[in-house]
Structure formats: structure tokens, C-alpha cells
């Protein structure tokens, strides 16, 4: 299959159902050959956007452009997009080869050309020996590979993926993530994926667009979103985070200091908010360390282990502190400085560059 990435653009896309707004004024660009994931909780609008792109849902406002051409009014069958669903949607009475050949039959390709394309598609997903089997004779992962082959066999302009791995168990899902990423690199096509799984979004995507309540909150490369979230929602939804609230006490070279109760925290920054400004910092659990007696750090707080879990590769600690409530800390088990136990008094340390200021965008509805 030849590589043929196409560019997609959404311009002011909105979708309303009566008084309910499912998608609100979303503008987004997907580059040629890019793997973009739409990520968000249930009800965030990500699937509605995908269905608008596919042509199954008509937007209330806005435009959808493919390589600069407006396709908003085109029916699904004229968009030439492949689609993979969560539930595979294979025909149970057809063999694997017949399932993969179905889009080619609809397009009235000749038998010889169909056979060659089906063989190439099955080779692509490493199922060349399974063409004569029925779907019920395959595992869940194999069925999903068949669905991928069927969506790619006619060389679509875009591949749309609607939570394609969510029906698989955790281990198989991780394996399919690796295969899907490698497949994308090999064929160079443009993929648009929808998921609520943060790890899947981080591992698969060139870029992630995070949505909430129908709005685009932040977009960027996975590492950028994880390391530099702009809002509390993004920091809390994409991975885990601690939130340290305080007020600006002092401007410093390369940052500022905030105060919370009796605790003073240093924060690296290129600009300083006015003295007295409330500030919220996001601090990832893995960016803190347990300090040994006499050890110092730019920032340090004392606390007591209120609970802990063994996760194999690491320990997850809940540390109760006087000024920031319970902080979550993760430690690798292979070099943990202590054996965790409830009631143990500890000191936590981190650098001023480990945390990042975020906007406190959580409403009462979000918190609930």
C-alpha cells in the first residue's frame, strides 16, 4: 500500500441537539500523515466530532476540510474514509478474506485486483494465514486486526478509529497499541483516533487534543501536554497530579515563591504574578522524592504516610501534609529508600522546576 497522508481541518465545528451542545466551536488541524487522538471523558464531545468527520453526524455550524476542500456536505460514502469501531463490526458469515474484500466489492473492483489488495492488507496486519477462517474462530485481537485490514484495504484518505482497543484486555491492548503505532509509521496515512484511555493517547499519538464539555481545552504533543498542562483539568485527566494552592509572596530571579500556611514553595517561571496573587501548582507524583535525614531540596514538606500500595514497578504513597492535604507520591521499588508503612513520618522534596502553574478550571460539576 502506498503512503498517502491527507490533511484535515475543522473550522468552528459545533453540534447541538436541541438545547444541549455536544460540541462547541472546535477548530483543529490534522497534518498529513499525523496520528491525532481526541481524548476526553464520557460526554466530552470526542465521538461526536469523529462522527462529524466521518459524515454520520451533520454539524450545526462550522466546516470540515480535506486538503483544503470543504467536505462538510458530502455523504459518508463519498468521503473515502476508513473506519474501525470498538466492536469490530465484522460479518460473522463471511471469512476473513471476504470481510476484508467487502469494501472492494462495493467499489466494484475486479476479482484479480481484489485478491491482490486483500492479500496485501492481510500481510500488513500479519494475518495472511487466516484468510479462510470465520471471525468466531479468531481472538479479539485478531478480529481487530481484520477490522483494520478492511478499513485500509481500499487505501482511504483518512483512517478513523473509534475506541478500537477498549474491548480488549489490558495486556492485549498494550500489544495492539504497539502494532497500531508501527502500522501507522509503515503506511504513512493520517489517523484520527478517539479514546478515553490516557495511556493509549500518550503512547500512540503524534498529537493529542483534550476535550471537555464539548470544548477543546488543550492540544499538543503528548510530552508537552503531560509536562506543561495549562489547566487543572488537563493535569488531572492526563495522568495523576498533586495540586498545591498558595499565594505569591516574592519575586525571585528565574521564578517566584508562594506561601501556603507555614510552608514556602519555590516555583521556576519566566514571569512572576503580582504579590498576593492566588496560584495553583501542578506537581506529578513521580517528580517528588523521599528525603533522607539531613538531605535538602529546593522544596521540602514533612508529612505522614496515610496509605500505600505496591504496584510491582513502584510504590504509590499517600502522604498527609499540614498545608497541602494528602499528596500522592510514586517511588520505584528497586531503589525505594524506605519500606513503606502507615504512620511513618517522612519528608518530601522536589525541585522548583518540577511543578507547573495551572489555571484552576474545575467547576462544581467537574468536581462531582
TrEMBL record:
GO terms for molecular function: ATP binding. It comes from Falsiroseomonas frigidaquae. Gene3D superfamilies: 2.40.50.100, P-loop containing nucleotide triphosphate hydrolases. The complex is composed of two ATP-binding proteins (PotA), two transmembrane proteins (PotB and PotC) and a solute-binding protein (PotD). Its EC number is 7.6.2.11. Keywords: ATP-binding, Cell membrane, Membrane, Nucleotide-binding, Translocase, Transport. This is Spermidine/putrescine import ATP-binding protein PotA. The keyword Lipoprotein does not apply. It catalyses: ATP + H2O + polyamine-[polyamine-binding protein]Side 1 = ADP + phosphate + polyamineSide 2 + [polyamine-binding protein]Side 1. Residues 8-238 form the ABC transporter domain. Pfam families: ABC_tran, TOBE_2. Part of the ABC transporter complex PotABCD involved in spermidine/putrescine import. Responsible for energy coupling to the transport system.
